Amino acid sequence: MAVIEIALTERLVAPWAEWQKRYTAGRRLLEAGTYALTEGAIAAGCRVFAGYPITPATDIAEYMSKRLPQVGGYYMQAEDELAGMHMCAGASLGGLKAMTATSGPGYTLMHDAYGWAITNEIPLVVVDAMRVGPISGITGAPGQGEFYVARYCTHGGNIETIVLSPNSVQESFWLTIDAFNLAERFRTVVTILTDQVISDMFEDLFLPHDYAELGGIVVPRHHNLAMPFYPLNSDAVDVPPNVVGLGTGVCVSAYTHTEEGYDIEEMEAQWAQTYRLVNKIRHHRDQILRYEAVGLEDAEVVAVAYGAASRTVKTAVLGARRRGIRAGFLRLISLWPFADELFGRDVRYLVCELNYDGQLVREVMRAAPDKRKVHFMGKSAELHTVAEVTAALEGVARDGRVPGLPYIWTDV
Amino acid sequence: MNKLAQKYLRPSQIPTKACHGCGIGMIENWLLQAIDELGLKQEDVVFGTGIGCVGRQTFATWGGDNFGATHGRALAVATGLKIAQPDKKYLVVVGDGDAAAIGTSHLIHAARRNLGVTVVCEDNMGYESTGGQFSPTTPAGYVTNSSPYGMVEPSFDPCDVVKAAGATFVAETTATQWHQTIKIVKKALQNDGFSFVHVRFPCNENFGAYALGTRDTLKNLEWIWEHTQGRTADGKPTDFTWETGIKHDASNSRPEFSKILRDLVRKAGGTPASAALDRVEGVVVDD
């Protein structure tokens, strides 16, 4: 095959693409993703962490236990994950920014608190450092099994969720600030889906030397001191969060609420609440969309991935282009709301993710013009190798199918 | 509406939605009396509840700030609130399901931490809002809608549990003991630490109807009173006895949890973060 260099169009659509240019004075470190995530939270103004130890998220708790008291904050080790997230919700309701971190087995225990915080529009950041499952699986191996769980993170439906996923140590820092900002602006829980590779690995990390200088990008906590506490039938963002303890008379509960926060059993109130919880996010999808793309404009086959999996996939795509395959790369950073608008071109898609059951691929099949052109390459508990992705890209580009490699499930 | 209700409650949320003859409204009135006698104002107290009869009937009745947590997690929410707003009094009013079943681990650990809240466990001895099933505080042997042959499990006393866990104030009382309850709640609220007040009250619709065979409020109250005395009205010994009164008072004997965390911040060289701001109108920025 002749070697043809195809011109690259690369873009990162995320707020930190600009932040990275603006903040250049600081420290360069060799640090872990968990460290970067912790510092991102501190920089964003997080002053409360409550959680329960679990691999591979425990390091975030340990870093927090050291860092928070230094900046006036509070670390709490809860009796379980249910308590951890409820404590964070309480602290945020009391006016302090808060975060918790866990992994799959702890994540599913948080669904109660998720529903409560989302319904009551309490800003909160939850980190899920995914490992391979189901259940405890292998504690030190990466997985991407909570793609759908993070979207449907509580019972009862009638919600929309915001989920972000980083793919490097550096990005873990900026993305965490971003997650806190979105949580404040949308008055909701923002989930960071990271994974064992991105959270445990050490990499080059730049930290701005004075977080106080990040004032231009960090959204501060505001307090809503007056009615309406829950704007019904409204999709407005940047509504200040409610605060308990300042005597506003706010009511916060697990029930369907009125705009004062009283429990109510009338369908009109239920519809009004649902309209708000769903549409404050859906109507502002453009403000949440974050992704990285290479060669999307001319690609005939687009490899799609997120998180750790995207690292080897991107390398394979760049290599394939050098060898004359019109391959493109799409890394989703905002996983939910799902970026349907990025799948408008009627081309072949190769979706690579760290599970065998296929989760992200189902959304791509739904969003793409022709689902028969969407191919799945799952891998469980370890990253795809560059060689595997390269072979799959070649197969999809040439024959419209993934070659039958061992241990790679393609039947979705 | 009585004067205390006018002073402290939300006119739109009272009278209580509880069933006829339920003790919840009466106990809440006593709580207000204790609050009033301590000179506390509406804005001094954050009122928290859980799920079930007690959660549903008391949520949003308080005129100040209210929260109704998910089932069992009121103390976890209160823990977060307390560290963000440490100067408030937290009155967490929950049922026996919240305190003694689904939320017991949070109760134990809040007691262990000496979290500065007063928990009032209003115990109607079963899951009554779901139709009358037995709970961990239903007396053994009694008939409920999920123990038609009599409750086969032994019951447990949440006072013993929180005392063992380190609660600094523990008391037990009933809906038949007005003055004792007010005295106890006042003491509980004055403890800068974890206070637990266990108040048994009758459910006429379920526990009364199925376990005791009557929906008569006075008869159900009498059954409770007899069990605090150890003998029935006609002088026979009761099948068991509830010891009521203050069971453990170590008020203000060890540091309160949020204070421990604030002290830790100072030790680490920081200034404790707090969202307790000067009150202003409209939107304020805290940084």
Would you give an account of this structure?
Chain A is of the alpha/beta class. Chain A is built from 13 helices and 18 strands. In chain A, the strands form 3 sheets. In chain A, strands 3, 4, 5, 6, 7, 8, 9 and 16 form an 8-stranded mixed β-sheet that branches. Chain A has a 6-stranded mixed β-sheet with strand order 1-13-15-14-17-18, sandwiched between helices. In chain A, strands 2-10 form a two-stranded antiparallel ribbon. In chain A, strand 3, helix 3 and strand 4 form a beta-alpha-beta unit. In chain A, helix 4 (81-93) packs parallel to helix 6 (111-119). Chain A is globular and about 65 Å long. Chain B has 287 residues and is α/β, with parallel strands linked by helices. Chain B is built from 11 helices and 8 strands. Chain B has a 7-stranded mixed β-sheet, with helices on both faces. The longest helix of chain B has 14 residues, at 24-37. Chain B is globular, with a radius of gyration of 19 Å. Chains A and B meet through helix 4, helix 6, strand 11 and strand 12 of A and strand 2, helix 4, helix 6, helix 11 and strand 8 of B. Strand 11 (221-223) of chain A pairs antiparallel with strand 8 of chain B.
Q: Which structural traits does this protein have?
A:
heterodimer, A: 412 residues, 6-stranded mixed beta sheet, 18 strands, 22% strand, globular, disordered N terminus, B: 287 residues, alpha/beta, 7-stranded mixed beta sheet, 11 helices, disordered C terminus
* Mean model confidence by pLDDT of chain A: 95
Largest sheet of chain A, in brief, is: 8 strands, mixed
Largest interface, counted by CB within 8 Å of the partner chain's CB: A-B, 57 and 57 residues
Structural class of chain B: alpha/beta
By secondary-structure content and strand pairing, the structural class of chain A works out as alpha/beta
What's the SSE pattern of chain B?
HHEHEHEHHEHEHEHHEHE
Q: Major sheet of chain B: size, sense and barrel closure?
A: 7 strands, mixed
Q: How many β-strand runs of chain B?
A: 8
Number of helices of chain A: 13
Termini Cα gap of chain A: 31 Å
